[in-house]
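Re: the pair you flagged

First of the two:
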Amino acid sequence: MTSYSSQGHLMKIIFFIFLLFSLQVQAQFIKVDATGAKLADDAKEWSCVYDESTNLLWENKTEANKKYTYNWYSPSDYYGLESKGDCQFQGKCDTDKYVKYMQGLCGVNDWRLPDKKDLESLVVCPLGKSQSWVNNYECNSYQTDGLKIKVNATYFPNMSYSYWSNDVYEEITSSAYYVNFYTGGTDRDIKSTPMSVMLVRSGYTPTVKEELHYPTWDSATHTLTIPKFDASAPVSSAKLRFDFANGTFEILESKEPVASGKK
């Protein structure tokens, strides 16, 4: 049996338990393997990244393919030019052919070229972002903010600088928008320009995603039950019973052996 000095101390214990639990359910990004299954956060290899905040699934670039470039092309576009980029499949280095080639990645078949807003959702600006179109909404002090590529490198470690979006520039339709992850800004360029491409898929949930369980409090027995969320959760499943009269609590169940006794 373990004791606590006061009810205030008890509340701190409960708060700490809930704080640890909250850390395991607030992760923005989830690593996904080539079949579409969820991976542990410490996985060393992954094919896609699921962003829970936007409900978007992203292609994860690799060290090998991050260098390849593609020009913006659509068969229905008047200004379209085929295969002006530099990729592993010569003659197929444009956005249209790349989208078709990548179908089936991570178990899905509706990959697309991202909108500029999709790409902008990945931008990380340590010192905030400009709200002016004059400088393309770049990150403030992007050259000296300590972040070379303005993205979460833990989940997107192989990003290059500029990525095509699907959005055509309204005033000059021979150009399209792209996001520059060096500056964090959005700009436009002529469609024949070779540039990086990273595909996205909307409305996806990993095929292996455990049901979310919350801690429960039984007021009749003064028992707090903390379920284990998944294999990477920092909190083991446990059940604690509190004795308010004697100022003690007892660990009834725990994944790891826990010594008990009154202090």
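Second of the two:
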Amino acid sequence: MLSMYLFWFAINTIQAIFTALWTCGWITIALLSLLVTGKSHLAHKLAKHVWAPGLLWGARAKVTVHGLNHIQPSTTYLFAANHQSIIDIPALMVALPMPLHFVVKQELGRIPFLGWYIRAMGMVLITRSRHKEAARKLDRADQAMREGRSFVCFPEGTRSRTGSLGPFKHGAFQPAINAQVPIAPIAIKGSLQVLPSAGFRVRPGEIHVHITSPVQTGDEAITRAQVAALCRDQIQQVLTL
């Protein structure tokens, strides 16, 4: 038992060092490309095709995508996903066929390199306890979606420690309703086993990303509570399979 613990401690230490160096290196390159070109296209490609696959390779995590037929790469979406692990972010980058922007908690913006990238790429940082401030920042996502940028939100507001689906915060859906873009619920399974929400105990595994039928927001009568309930129900159905 002790020898197995030491084995995984050594492996996870190497993986943590690799993750830090890989992230610092490629985020620096992405930011330089943004500085030189003034456009985010190349930085998005580096994140999707180099940074995210590298992190998944380092974790020995395979991503399998289900339901791609439900979405069109040329359409703007708000993707609403359950959240079990920090590795959900690179998994979604690899799984979805368009450049992604994320609505993430303010704490991530304080992390060197990662926080710089989040701000430079126009992603939205919110403080969950400051509701009025969060609402103002979500207005930026509203405008960005009107301009054709797809976003990802985690409406539970935090990572699940058990894998069970928590209640959804309704405000996460308001920008998509305002911009009248479809909301695609996504159920992520397996990421908790690869990298739990607490600590850095990485284990090889398979992450399944299930894209379900988008919820349309063109009906002016639909409320964010109704949208949240529809999205949560679709995700819960997949998680219980």
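The longest helix spans residues 2-37.

-B.
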